[in-house]
Amino acid sequence: MSPRKAEENTRIRDERREQILSAALEVFIQKGYSATKIADIAATAGISHGLVYHYFRSKEEIYAELTSRLVKSTEATARIAHESGDPRSTLLRVLELMLQGMEKEPAYYILAAQIMLMAEALPSQANDIFRSGMESARAVAAVIAEGQKAGCFREGDPLQHFVLLYSAITGLAITRNTSLKMGGEPVTVDAATLLRLIESHRSTEEPTTARSLEQTPE
Question: Keywords, A to Z (predicted)?
Fold first, then answer.
């Protein structure tokens, strides 16, 4: 087989796998893991039942691939949260990363939210995203706690503040996913706007950083 032919075959294989994964993601969101069948995924992808099995051995393998991608995204969030720097700038970078991921693949955020709520009802692969998600949440909550000490963020449970921010992003993901399906223009929200949900009045009255020059005092 010529190198060009091999390269073309690889491209076709990768495209087909992504087609199946995209269809599976949609079906898992609509029906949940337990109710989803390979036939549903095949119908949504517009391919034959047998062709799905040519690329994936089972529904579990498809689900494992999707959850592994979710794990990677939450691990990236945790890495930023663990980096040194002032809490406000660090949290802005975390939110920017999450928003970038949400804008690129909103359906993944919707699936992640379902997994976090229903992990006990899903196969073992979901445990990885659940654990990774909780580790990420704790890491970001620690950043928020440091920001509270510095007067950047409002008082209250840091983990609840993170849940508020994550819930807002999940809501944006749902809105974006729906808008794209209906051919509409999704609403975009930047990280600085999200950050105002937990910023203290003192923080917004102080000089802004280079990352948030567009902010206005409350």
Answer: DNA-binding, Transcription, Transcription regulation
